[in-house]
Specification:
The protein is built from seven helices and nine strands. By secondary structure, it is of the alpha/beta class. It has an eight-stranded mixed barrel with strand order 1-2-4-5-6-7-8-9, surrounded by four helices.
């Protein structure tokens, strides 16, 4: 997730961009969404929903010493507007994974089987983090909630930092970052991506995302993990 404030020029570019098209085995339906952080404190949630977006990931925490000061108001706004929503944690490989998953859980990253809460997402970008660290965070989250976190990364980061590990294919949904009009080949042996971040801007703020399935499948993810 980009840390810098998005400019109005970027937002205008995103608005003009046509939506990407792709096919997945046995499923070509998609749901539009976006992700935001503390750099977008004043999202017009009703406008975003009326504009066709249906899910959002909101940054909650980073490492063990940062909590998004706008998270609660953003989460409440998204909920009131009707979004399926979830929280994400920006990983810091220099600090214990167990400590970070606890910090995330204590500051908005929890999950419940209510049909509107997406499993927490682990944001993996920037400095490399190894497979063992990711596994510790993933297992810690699972032990708390009975679901595995969504893993966000670009194909290039995953290949460089994990050696293109396939350790998470059977447990964790993939949130693939690939800024193009067509999706990249999913990294790490995943047969498909669950979410795709296809642009680093959005008309309503943040980044533009797709869920690789229809709305009922998105609800299932928010119900069963």
């Amino acid at each position: 997730m980009k840390k810098a404030m998005l400019t109005s020029a970027l937002a205008a570019t995103a608005a003009a961009r046509s939506m990407p098209h792709f096919k997945r085995q046995s499923n070509s339906s998609t749901v539009q969404g976006f992700d935001v952080s503390g750099y977008q404190p004043n999202v017009n949630w009703d406008a975003a929903y009326n504009g066709g977006l249906r899910f959002v990931y909101i940054k909650a925490t980073q490492s063990t010493d940062y909590t998004n000061p706008d998270f609660s108001s953003q989460y409440e706004g998204a909920t009131n507007a009707g979004f399926i929503r979830g929280a994400y944690h920006f990983a810091d490989g220099t600090v214990s994974a167990s400590a970070q998953v606890s910090y995330f859980a204590q500051n908005g990253g929890g999950w419940s089987s209510d049909g509107i809460t997406l499993p927490g997402m682990l944001d993996l970008e920037g400095d490399c983090i190894g497979v063992d660290w990711i596994q510790e965070f993933s297992d810690g989250y699972y032990n708390m909630y009975g679901v595995y976190p969504v893993l966000y990364s670009s194909p290039s980061w995953w290949e460089q930092c994990t050696g293109n590990s396939n350790a998470f294919v059977n447990t964790n949904p993939l949130f693939m970052a690939c800024y193009d009009s067509t999706p990249c080949t999913p990294q790490g042996g995943w047969p498909y991506f669950t979410f795709w971040q296809y642009a680093d801007s959005n008309t309503y703020g943040g980044d533009s995302d797709l869920f690789n399935g229809d709305y009922s499948q998105l609800q299932t993810l928010a119900t069963n993990g």
